[in-house]
């Protein structure tokens, strides 16, 4: 394993994270995010311009970075610019992404029928396990709730 050179900027960020009591995993995630940003820029991240920050966000969007990864990287950049670099104004150029909401999968009437037909035996135990009432009247009451 090759030893990576720690720059004064990275050392300062690590110290800032330690001062705030961040755990090792959080520190590594922040460092990884800033390293990715620096690789995108091709120069030291503390000298980034608002346009470069915008281009990086577009790059993450265009390359299909998930909303959660995108937001973790933005949080890291906010910490980096706000705390380590003292460049609070850069936060204005960072946007979080909302996570897409997924609709639940709902079984059709036919699929429920197939499921019930596959239940072994007439026992109440299996119906209870599936959460299906054993009496039609109870099913109607259950639907009204």
TrEMBL record:
Gene Ontology MF terms: DNA binding
InterPro entries: CB, DNA_brk_join_enz, Integrase_recombinase_N, Integrase_SAM-like_N
Keywords for this protein: DNA integration, DNA-binding
Domain of life: Bacteria
Entry keyword annotation includes Glycoprotein: no
PROSITE patterns documented for this protein: CB (PS51900)
GO BP annotation list: DNA integration
Pfam families with a match to the protein in the record: Phage_int_SAM_4
Domain Core-binding (CB), first and last residues per copy: 4-85
Protein name: Integrase-like protein
Source lineage: Bacteria, Pseudomonadati, Pseudomonadota, Alphaproteobacteria, Rhodobacterales
